[in-house]
Every structure is written in C-alpha cells, then in structure tokens.
Protein 1
Amino acid sequence: MKRINFSSGAPLEELVGYSRMVKVGEHIYIGGTTAVLPDGTVHGDTALEQADYIFRKFINLLNEAGANPSDVIKIKAYVTDMSFAKEVGEAYSPYFKDVRPLFTMVETPKLNRPSQMVEIELEAFITDEN
C-alpha cells in the first residue's frame, strides 16, 4: 500500500519531523490537532470555537486525501476540563452526527499551550459508499 504524508504547514511539523495526516492505502490518520494558527496563536477563546476550528480543518484535510466525513470511523478528543465536553459535542455534531463514528473524549491536565482547551485525533477509511 502506498503511503502519503500531508502537512498543514505548522512550523513544528518540519522542525520536529511529523505529518498532520498520513494516508496508507484507504486508511487516513490525522494526528492530534489543536486550534493553533500558522503564526502560533490559538484560534478561539472557548472550547466550542477551538473544536469547530479543528473539525473544519479535518474536513479540509479529508477532502485533500480524497475522503469525506462519511469515511470517518473514529475520533478521540482530549480536553483540559470535562466541563468542555458539551461544547466539543456541539462543534462535532454538524459534521459527524449522522455518520456516528466512534467518539471518545478524555480529560488531560494540560496541552502544549495554556490557551489550548481541546486536541482531537481522527481516523477514516475510504469506502466505495461515498
């Protein structure tokens, strides 16, 4: 199976040596993604704003890989406070409610920057049912 690495242009990707998304055959994996903008600032002052930004970024990445939301099979969200769960769920629903992938949300003590409230990972598998 062919492997394709995708970058989102974040400075750390090149510096550290990681990809935002990897496609292997029909499998797509998007690594932990936060609402960090290219200039290093964080988009959004609420968990809802940050999660929505991340989910929109996922949709763009999936399209780049030839996939769409209906191909998503698993999402894992990390929040710095479980009180953010409702907001993350609100951001999630417009994109994935009808798809109904696996969805796990866990609390973590902190993320890379104090202003980050949410980090999300995604897995997809491209099917012929698109």
Protein 2
Amino acid sequence: MRYKSKQTAGRVDMTPMLDIVFIMLIFFIVTTTFLKETGVTVQRPEGIAKAPDKEQQALVFHVEADNRLSLNGRNIDIWSAEALVKEAITIDPETAVAINLKEGADMKTFMRIYDGLRKVGVPKYRLPVLTHS
C-alpha cells in the first residue's frame, strides 16, 4: 500500500537576511573614512597679457544705393567678401565685422553678403547691420 503524502512547498523567509544586509551596509557607511585626494596644482601666471601689435581693425562692408560693395573704403567684388573675412578671422578670431546699408540698397545684395559671412563662421550676435540714409 502506498502512502500519499502531502508535500508542502518550503518557503524561505528572506527578512532576516535582508536585515543583516542592511546592518552591514550601515556599518560600512559609518566606518568609511574619506581621504582628500590631492591633484596637480596649477600655477597660473599673473599679469601676462598679449600686447596688441596693432589696433584691431574692424571690417565694415558698405552697400551703396546702386549695390556697389566696398570694404573699409575699398571697392570689392561680392564674391571676394567671404575670402577677405575668412582671412581676417583666421588671423584674429575676434575681428569685428559689420554691414552698413545705404538707403535704396538691394536686399538681395545684403542677403548674399550676410549669408556668406555666416558661412565663414561669423556668429549672428557679432554681425551688426547699420542702416543709413
């Protein structure tokens, strides 16, 4: 005769183990000592500044009413504007650039210059546009 026994599933209570883990965690946090790691000390020179060799020259494009383009009083071609600004910015990245529009100047000419200057790297906030009548 066979006996049928009821097998009960064994359950393991994890609560005591978790208690021990948390107690160990608290122990390690409390007993930890923090060391102040020293790194490389940087000694920066004081009072050394680059003396300007020449006065900073601003590039001012003038667009006349008949759409002639000049740069600092010198007549130039619209296709050379980008190259001249790129050369100046390569030499000195802080070069100031401005566009001076006379009344009656064509917007197409202005936009070609503006887009060309933006293409060579002149940021919007450093590109003032002046209008004169």
Protein 3
Amino acid sequence: MTVDDVAVYLDVPKSWVYNNHKREGIPFKKVGQQLRCRPNDLDRWLDAQGAR
C-alpha cells in the first residue's frame, strides 16, 4: 500500500501519515524513495493499537 492508500484506509490526511509514521510505528518499508506497507502488516499494527 502507498501512503495515499494507508491514509484512506485509516481515514486520516496523507500529511498525518507522513508526519507520524515513525512515532506511531506504522510498518512502512522504503522501496526506492517511496514508503510502502503490506496490508496484513497494517492490520496487525491496527490490532495492536487497541492494546495501548
């Protein structure tokens, strides 16, 4: 998933994803110059957010 896809999925602005992905621990990997996230990794991350 791209940053745009993640923003839509989380229902947040794209700028929020860029500004907070490191602090929040969103499981992105760099592919070239772009951030990508696997849907399953994002779902696991979301599930873990409920435990905070």
Protein 4
Amino acid sequence: MTPATLARAATLERLIEAEQARFLRLHPRSAAAWREGRRHFLYGAPSHWMRRWAGGFPVYIDTAQGAHVRDIDGRDYIDFCLGDTGAMCGHAPEAVTLAVTKQIGRGATMMLPTEDSLWIGAELSRRFGPRYWTLTTSATDANRAAIRIARMITGRSKVLVFSGCYHGGVDEAHVEIRDGRVGLRNMIHPNAVDHDAVTKIVEFNDIAAVEAALVAGDVACVLTEPVMTNFGMIPVADGFHQALRDVTRRAGTVLIIDETHTLSCGPGGYTALHGLEPDILVAGKAIAGGIPAGIFGLDQVTAERLWRIVPPVNPRQRQSAHLGFGGTLAGGALAVAAMRAVLEEVLTEPAYAGMFSHAERLAGRARGLIAQNELPWHVTQIGARIEIMFMPSRPRNGADVIAGRQPDLETLMHAFYMNEGILITPFHGMLLTCPATSSADVDQHGDVFERFGKLVGEAGVT
C-alpha cells in the first residue's frame, strides 16, 4: 500500500470510530439491550443478520409505521431499508393489519387451504403471466424448491449462478469469482458442501461464458435475478435476457428468475415489465407485507414435465407423493390473508407510481450532488430501488464491483446516516421507497447525503 492509501485508510478509520462513538452516545438503551441480548442469543440478537449494522450494535425498535421507525431510545428514522425489502409495503399498512387481525382470530395455520388462496392464484397469474403456483415461507424455500424441481425434471446436478449473486440460504449460490478463482462469498464459512459438484459460476452479462458452461449438459438450471441487486446494483446489458433465454432452451436448462428484490419494478416485477419468459419464477419478502412468505410458479411446459414424474392426481394412492420441499407452515391461512391484502390493496399500480416518483427524485438529487461536488460515485435506479455506489461508473459484473467497491466508505455512510436519522440497507448502498414514503422523506435524505458528501470531501476520502 502506498503512503497515500495508508493515510486514507487511517482517516476513514478515524471517521468511522467517531461516528460509532456518536452512535453509542445517542443510543444508550439499545446498547444496554445489546449487552443483554448477547447473554442469550447465539450472535446477540434473534437473527445473526441483526448484528450487521455499522453502529457497532443494532438499534432496538419500539414502533414502525409507514416509512418511519422509532427505537427504544426515542429516536426516529426515515426508513429506506424497509427490512431489506421485506417491508416494501411500508410498516403496518392498514390493509395487511386488518387482514391478519381478522384471520388470526379464525386460525393461523391448519395445513389446509382457505378460499383466499383461490383469489391469490388467479392474481399471481394475472400479474406475472399464467403459471402453476406454490406458496412457501420464504424466497429461500422457493429457490430451493425450484432447484429441486429443475434437478428432478432434467436429471442433472448443477446450478449455474452469477458471481456476486444472492438467493437466500441456498448453498449452491454462496460462491463468487475473486481474482480468477471460485470461493465462498460474503465471508461465508465452508460447511463441507462440494461446490464443484453442485455449482457452476460465471460473470453476469457474459452470455458467452453461460453458453460455454452449458455445453457439458450437466446444468439443471440457471438461477438469476433480472438485475443483480445484492452486490451493489449491476444493471443488465442490452440483449442479455433474450440471449440467456435462447441458450438455456437450446441446452435444455431450466431458467429460474428470482424477483424477490426486483418486485420493486412494478406489480409483475421486472419479468412482466420486460416480457421475460422464465420456466420458474420466484419471489418473496414483500409479497405478504412482512409476514413470512414466498412464491414460485412454473409455466405450462415445466409443470407438465414435473407432472409426468409426479402426477397432480393419482386416485390409486391414498397419500400423495412428497416432493422434498415445502413446510408445515407454507401457504398457511395467516400468510395467505396477508398476501391477498398486499396484492389487492397495497402494491397496486397507483402505489407503484408514487414509489417510482419518489425514487426518481431521490436518485436525481443524489446524482446532482455527486456532479456538483465532482465526486467519483454513481447512482442506479430501477423502479422503487436506488443504489449509491462509491465508484465512478456502473459495474458490468461482480468483478467490477470487487475491483471498485469501497467497504470502509460504505460503513462510514451507514453509521453517519443512522446518526442523522436515516436507515438504508446495511450491506451496501441500497435504498427503497414504499407507498408511505413522502416528499419530505426524500428531501431529508438529500440533505443528509449532502452533509455526508461534505464530510468525506473535506476529509479527502471520496
């Protein structure tokens, strides 16, 4: 490292430590709660993800309503994280609150369907195109099921993913290409899974690499987001989706598109907006307004391939075949009631229009401040989702992100934002608007972003 690089790193460390000290002063009750939580939970909180905030410990939430949350120290935040998309409907939307309140008094789960599920099946096909649907408890479960089905109908073992991807707790996707070598991503520790046996990995937007990986005929499915959103946002290259669809069909490989984040692009996600044709479509997180739920849907051809192996009805069998996926709580009455409320009353066309408008304003002001102050950063926006990245141009793939990403600067931004009353996704620079986001919320973010730019500009660490 050069002397200038070392000096910059030292300055960033000093700024982070100052923001974390300010965070501790502002959050004494959360700090005490964190100390208590560490006595009982494996990693200090109910989920180990909850420790992954830049303040040094998580804030403990008292209430959340609309686009705002309040912690137990009485501090208010504008929430652009929204539960890393799980709360894209906003917090405690009235329609969902009423639906789950009504349903909980009638039973939460019976491992039997309710009539609301009939409406949901029809609505999902209206939004995403005609499909045969299954409900799960998460997008992770939906992805696992989709992979299992792909292996069942193809007889193949491998899953092709793109470097930098994230598809939940799916072992096959916990890999990345770094310095030309395949390894585990995001500091995930090995757990004896032989990724050479189950995974192939290439860079996003590289259709030639995809085609080469499919030649051997051992890839059951390609699993991808329409736009990569979990490694910093990586836009899709012109023509890539059509080429991907063409090469997977020629290779007999199932194409799975995971819309869990890109559901922020509209009522039918990126798939409906751009006319994509996945064999299996997956979504989760926001689909039930924060109640644990996911979905996956097979097109007609894929469903018929599965039915040839496991018929949907077999009158000679008293017990139906177990397909190796599911869950006792999957498709439970409470989740179904919440999902209907979301699809019918919350994530509607008018709601999306407002979300898009606010996202465009937020991204526009951020771009203006970046240009005005000649900062080597950029902003990407798709639908209601915005990404601020500390690199001068948009990445084409995971390798570009690895080469250009500045994790210490991201950490400083997250800590500074929380101290200034703004929450964004803690893993990188992603923001999301919801139906309850207001113009005042967007303006306040712009003011905080301007102050952050001034802080790092004066320190010389842009």
